[in-house]
Amino acid sequence: MRELEIKHQLLEACTEYVTTRINKMELGIKDLEAALKLETKCSMGDKYETDRAMLHLEFEKIAGQSEGFKKLQKTVRAIPSGRIDEKVTFGSVVKTPVANYFISIPAGELIVNGEKYFAVGASAPISKVLTGKTAGDVVNFNGREIMIQKVF
To answer: Which CATH code is given to the segment(s) 2-77?
Structure first.
């Protein structure tokens, strides 16, 4: 079925998005660990303490981002991909004249078969408006009426 193929490709794109981000974060952590080791060997004094503190802050920031992407990775794994939905729910693809949405994770714009989709988290405002609706329903979002053309 074409819809299941599109859903599968969107799921793959979300998986790739998260995996790429996790890999970048892990590389950043390794680079910071190497820099911390180098700082320990090279310096002493106030500048050493300041540089080391800045490296620790950056390490904590990247580690936090990495944890966030690992949570997104778990969310991606929970997306049901082998079903066609009649009502909008987590894992649904929603087509409208305004935009196409994949209710999944906040991965932004994805292109599948030359068509643009926006991967949005289940708690995103547009997701909340669309959830529970079916094809043919009209929703109001940001003062604009949007008709749902297709849900799968």
So the answer is: 1.10.287
